[in-house]
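Let us practice reading a record.
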Amino acid sequence: MSHIEARAAAEGHDHVETGASITAHDFYRRLGYADVRESRTEFGLNYILRKPIQGTLRFGRSSHARERTAMGETCGRCGQRSWCWP
């Protein structure tokens, strides 16, 4: 998971989100993921979990204020991809 989180950070994303079965739920919680919501699938209960990534816009990598952009778009001022926080 650390490799995936590092790749997401390198691409400018501010979090990683994943789905987990009831048996994998504690595994992701121990890695620092927090519950976002639950969903029911044809296979049973599924947890959606999210973990903020350090070193990205959410944690102060950008020092300028700007408008929020959609996930994956590039900020016109800093060139970073992901959410831009005002």
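A brief commentary: Helices lie at 2-10, 25-30.
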